[in-house]
Design goal:
heterodimer; A: alpha/beta; Urease, subunit C, domain 1; TIM Barrel; nine-stranded mixed beta sheet; five-stranded parallel beta sheet; 13 helices; B: alpha/beta; Rossmann fold; 2 domains; four-stranded parallel beta sheet; 9 strands; about 15% strand
């Protein structure tokens, strides 16, 4: 038996049902209950007036680093960071060491997630053995095992060979799973440290052209059309790639995509001081691309906001920019950046941002227990946020084991107060409540 | 003056003037029999070199010694702590703990000098960082041009070769544009990007007769291997400075090269030794310009440097 809660006076924003109203929400036995009809004598009452009650966030793109780099992040620390960020489910990328390309590894990740019990850890499986792009990984077995993998990707790189992609898409389509691509043509991107443009030229850094991403997006759309496979484009970042996806959707193709908070917040100007924390892949692009990402989020071309949370050890980022690995952490800043960069300037409504952070990614991953609707009888996976709280990003206060963020010291608006995972308070007043087993 | 010299972006026309004028007076010292000044006695300059370099390292060493500084040379080679995996940051901290006042850094990574300047209290001089900048080379080149032309305003300079990968080109374009010169970039279209303030002209023959300075860049061997142009032979035919092209230059025009040269590729052997060539002067001027810079940077800490 888990404790009961009564959240009173909050504004319930539930994109799945279209609800947006002031209402009490009752939680009992892991489920949402009707606050009006049931008496809750032993329920803990939490006054959430002035705050938002919404479905828990779902991250399509998290690197947990376990197994292999437990100094950078573990499933437990990443789960705590996710809960603190308002998440109730995260999709763990397979580029671990060893690579998650067999049922035994995805089952292990899934089991460790359950043992931690702070969020649903949904393992993604590798498309190809060792992420080498040469031989299929054990896709059927990963799909069939207890982890029930529904999204396959070689994230960190794209599958370069078009015939390999075709075979993978045909095979995956047979299981009704999702083919997710990190779109980057290696021959064009190799050796690049940032977006190719005037800034890379001035900084003397080899660049990654937008075309390296756009070519693969266009190729994958053509192959998804050929094979009928569900395609998800990871961390889209260029104007041309977004336009190609917009057109494919207009044609009725089932393709989805995501964008990261750093791609709607920053541009390649963040590299001007050679700050390795701003080195990320795909790279921070130009202002026109940043605006195209926002436009894509506004018109729905971009379905979801995903973090691409990529922890790195301090010593790896504390070196020459050209030597530092790409990636930055995002679980504990995603909501605030969305509020600050998308809602406050009036690009997106609060409800749409929650849809992009929760409802849409839950649908893409097929997670029925997440993303709302917040109705009686549904699993109580929900988050309470203060949309107006201002705070300054302090990586030392993160639950993540890593601190590599270019947002350190940035003033942001919007804070996660409470997170409920299957009715348990994983976060109360911003504090993660230990490790609970499910 | 400035605490660090990382990029030519930091210097305006007045500051460049001061560095070049100070270099001119220091040049007289180097022509004396007794070549030493006591200015930097008790100060320590460390040449921290992550890339092989002969002329730049020796030039900085001579410059520092003529100002009576103590000089440490640290080359990150197979026998050093760097080969044992020590990071740039830790290496810099180690040097700083030993009381180094200036770190002269040559590094293969673009931005290394800037990053280093954020990690240490010492002054940092960028002696070439990856494909980014080589500001003291640009300063000595400006000095060398000014010895012949007095005023750089309106001077027409062609920089020829692999602009894309060249830190010398980036720094020189910035310095020349600051001083009011007109810069045209010449070379294979794959290697000549549009840098701010400069024109681009792939056809060498259309500019050779008009320029006051023809500045040639070294063509790295791997550029042909990576197919930026078909062959060294074609490069030499299209963008090499041979006797036929040199003969079309204006009478007073100069030939410059930062070295080391690939004779027969970007420059014909006889052309490099022609009266128009000031390639050897560039090397000699390098010492005076680096003395000037160290003098002004360290002097300013004592309140006696330039404003």
């Amino acid at each position: 038996m888990s404790p009961s809660y009564l959240l009173t006076g909050g504004r319930v924003v539930d994109p799945a049902s279209g609800r947006d109203e002031i209402a009490d929400v009752a939680i009992s036995n892991g489920l949402i209950e009707d606050a009006g009809s049931v008496a809750h004598p032993d329920a803990e009452t939490i006054d959430v007036s002035g705050h938002i009650v919404c479905p828990g966030f779902v991250d399509l793109h998290t690197h947990l680093r376990e197994p292999g780099r437990e100094d950078e992040e573990t499933i437990a620390s990443g789960s705590a960071a996710a809960a603190a960020g308002g998440y109730t489910a995260i999709c763990a990328m397979p580029n671990t060491d060893p690579v998650a390309d067999t049922a035994s590894i995805v089952e292990k990740v899934w089991a460790l997630g359950r043992e931690t019990g702070l969020v649903e850890v949904v393992p993604a499986g590798a498309l190809t053995k060792g992420l080498l792009g040469e031989r299929m990984s054990d896709i059927g077995e990963m799909h069939r095992c207890s982890a029930g993998v529904r999204l396959f990707t070689d994230d960190g790189k794209g599958v370069q060979d078009a015939l390999m992609v075709r075979r993978l898409m045909e095979y995956i389509a047979g299981f009704g799973a999702v083919y997710a691509e990190h779109c980057e043509v290696e021959s064009l991107a190799r050796g690049g440290h940032m977006h190719e443009g005037e800034r890379s030229l001035a900084l003397g850094l080899a660049g990654i052209p937008a075309a390296a991403e756009e070519l693969m997006v266009v190729r994958d759309i053509a192959l998804a059309r050929l094979t009928g496979c569900r395609l998800h484009i990871l961390h889209v970042s260029t104007t041309g790639a977004i336009e190609a996806i917009r057109e494919a959707k207009r044609d009725g193709l089932v393709v989805t995509t995501e964008a990261t908070p750093h791609h709607f917040t920053l541009t390649d100007s963040a590299l001007e001081g050679y700050d390795p924390r701003a080195k990320v892949n795909p790279p921070l692009r130009e202002e026109a691309d940043r605006l195209a990402v926002i436009e894509g989020l506004v018109d729905g071309t971009i379905d979801a906001i995903a973090t691409d949370h990529a922890p790195h050890a301090r010593e790896e980022k504390d070196q020459e920019l050209t030597q530092a690995p790409p990636g930055l952490i995002g679980l504990e800043t995603a909501f605030a950046l969305a509020m600050t960069e998308l809602v406050a300037p009036g690009h997106l409504s609060l409800s749409t941002v929650i849809e992009r952070l929760s409802t849409a990614p839950a649908r893409i991953l097929g997670l029925e227990a997440h993303g709302g609707p917040l109705e009686p009888g549904r699993p109580a996976n929900l988050t309470v946020v203060d949309p107006e709280a201002e705070w300054v990003v302090d990586p030392d206060a993160f639950r993540s084991l890593s601190t590599n963020t270019p947002f350190a010291g940035r003033r942001v608006t919007g804070r996660v107060l409470h997170t409920f995972y299957y009715g348990r308070a994983t976060v109360l007043n911003g504090e993660v409540r230990g490790t609970v087993s499910v | 003056m400035i605490k660090h010299l990382l990029s030519m972006d930091q210097l305006d026309r007045d500051q460049i003037d001061t560095i070049l004028e100070t270099a001119q007076s220091l040049r007289q010292v180097t022509d004396r029999r007794m070549k030493k000044l006591p200015t930097l006695r008790g100060r320590t300059v460390c040449n921290l070199f992550y890339e092989a370099s002969t002329r730049t390292r020796i030039s900085f060493e001579v410059a520092a010694k003529r100002l009576s500084a103590d000089v440490i040379n640290f080359t990150a080679d197979a026998k050093s702590s760097v080969a044992k995996g020590e990071s740039l940051k830790d290496t810099a901290w180690t040097l700083e703990a030993m009381g180094v006042d200036v770190i002269v850094l040559r590094h293969w990574a673009s931005g290394a000098a800037q990053q280093l300047s954020e990690w240490v209290a010492a002054s940092v001089v960028n002696a070439g960082d990856g494909q980014h900048e080589h500001p003291t080379q640009a300063l000595l080149d400006l000095y060398s041009m000014r010895e012949h032309f007095k005023d750089l305003e309106g001077l027409k300079v062609a920089i020829v070769g692999d602009i894309l990968h060249s830190r010398v080109a980036r720094s020189n374009v910035k310095g020349l544009v600051t001083m009011g010169a007109e810069v045209v970039l010449v070379g294979p279209p794959t290697l000549v990007p549009k840098l701010p303030g400069a024109d681009v002209q792939p056809d060498f023959d259309s500019v050779i007769g008009e320029v006051d300075v023809c500045y040639l860049l070294r063509v790295q061997k791997e550029r042909q291997a990576d197919q930026f142009f078909p062959t060294n032979r074609e490069y030499a035919a299209m963008w090499g400075l041979n006797a036929r092209r040199a003969a079309r230059m204006k009478p007073h025009a100069l030939i410059m090269h930062p070295g080391p040269m690939n004779r027969g590729v970007e420059i014909a052997a006889d052309v490099s030794e022609s009266p128009k060539s000031i390639i050897v002067e560039q090397v000699a001027n390098g010492v005076a310009v680096r003395m000037s810079l160290l003098y002004l940077m360290l002097g300013s800490e004592n309140g006696e440097g330039m404003q």
